[in-house]
Amino acid sequence: MELSLQPFVGVIVSVALFLLAYRKTIGARKERIHAANTDLEKTLLKRIVLESYQPTVTEVRRFIEGKAQDYRVRTRDLLSELQILTVLFARVLETDLITSRQREAILGKLFPLLQKAEDSPLEKARVVEHAEERKPLHRRTIVTLVPIALLASVTGTLLVLASAIMTGAPVGLLKTGLLVFTASTLAILLVLLVLRIREAQEESGSTLSLKAGITFEEEVVWVLQKGGARLKLGEPRPIGGDFMAEIRGKQLLIAVKPWIGGVPISLVRAAVDQLREGLKEESADLGILVVMESLPLPLESLEDAQVRVMTIRQLRNYLAYKLT
Q: Disulfide check for 224: which of 61, 106, 115, 229 has CB 3.0–4.6 Å away?
């Protein structure tokens, strides 16, 4: 082997050993989590579509716990009840393998479950638990990877030194060894940084999105209080919404939905219909469905004098200038 190529070969060997060890440890666990989530989704979808099975939130939770044991992962690592039901809702909505009547019937069964899962205090507690554990988990991951990275760098360095000795070029071994070890360590750190960025992007589509939903609800509460509303929070929740608000002699029924991206109009219509039912049960004057971003849907057919759909900015302006 040419002496000038030995350092590059050593770096390549070090990085390859690190990636292999990563795949056998942390990577293997992530593959099990992905496989368990896929199994959850496919199994529930088949039972719902082919057998007209209507699961409860409790049954979905138990199924998640069972799959966690099957795949040797923690329950908190898998999709939550709300996430599983949301995925199922999307799959039923997009599939062409069932009739429109079947689709409408299945979605009608799934929507109440979604509502119950969204309102579940367990879901919020799980998000808080994830947020509290994420940093210690990352620290444990780093502690695991540091000796692996050092061992890979040392192995690549020893390979280069052994090759230099065997080819009869022992001059400058110390300098060559330090060069290979440093370059290998830096290359592994770069690879680790790329892997961490990918993981962060995956997290933003799961736990972080749930946490953002809870933060959004807190922001809606703050806007209402800033606008002079007196809120009725806590349990039991009002029918059709998340909480009641009283402002300027009017009773408002508020429903908060942190929807992002394409939302089917059937889902919005169902939420609006629930608000209308809640207005009667709670003797409220106005129902407001607060969403995270403007919905590209024909909302005129859903809204009326009693029910409005608006973003948090529109809610702020409505409380300040339009509500009398």
A: 229
